[in-house]
Amino acid sequence: MASVNVQHPVAVGRRRLVVLAAAAVVAVVLNYLVAFGAVALGADESFRPLTAPVFMPFTLIGLAAGFAGWTAVVRRSARPAAVLRVLVPVVLVLSMIPDLLLLATKFIPDTSGTAVAGLMVMHVVVTAVGVPAYRLARPENVRAM
Q: What is the pLDDT of residues 71-115, one digit of tens each?
C-alpha cells in the first residue's frame, strides 16, 4: 500500500518563515559587505543608498517582492520553471534601470560609478540569495531550475 506524505500546514508555514528569515539575514549581511567594498573602492561613504538604514529595508522589500512574484508564477503557470528561468533574469536587469538613471542624472548627492556599481551588485545579491530560498520555501511545481 502506498503511503501519502502530507505535511501539516503549520509546519510548511514555519519552514517558509525560517527559510525566508535566513535569506533575509544572509542578504542583508552580504549587502553590508558590498556597501563596505564599494566604499573601500572609492564610493563616497556619505552616499546614502550605501548606508545600512537605506539598503536594509530595500533588501527586505526586494526579497519580499521576489517571493510574491515567485509565488504568483508557481500558482498560476502550467510551467513555472520555464517561466521563472526567463522572468528572474529579466526582472533583475529591469531592477537596475533606476540605478542607471541615478548614474546618468546624479540626483542623489555623492553619486559615482563605484557607488552605483555597488547598488547594482546588491540587486544581484538579493536575486542570488532569494532564488534558492524561494525554491526551498515554495518548491511545488518548480523542477530542475
A: 999 999 999 999 999 999 999 999 999 999 999 999 999 999 999
The label of the residue with cell 505535511 reads: 7
Map out the domains of the chain as residue ranges: 9-137
Cα separation, 71 vs 43, in Å, equals 36
Cβ neighbours for 125, distance < 8 A, ≥ 6 positions apart: 27, 30, 31, 34, 59
Distance CA 32, CA 96 (A): 18
* Type of residue found at 113: G
Q: Which residues of 66-88 are buried (b: 16+ CB within 10 A; e: fewer)?
A: bbebbeebbeeeeebeeebeeeb
How far apart (Å, rounded) are the C-alpha atoms in residues 57 and 63?
10
The x, y and z cell numbers of residue 34, run together, are 558590498
Amino acid at 51: T
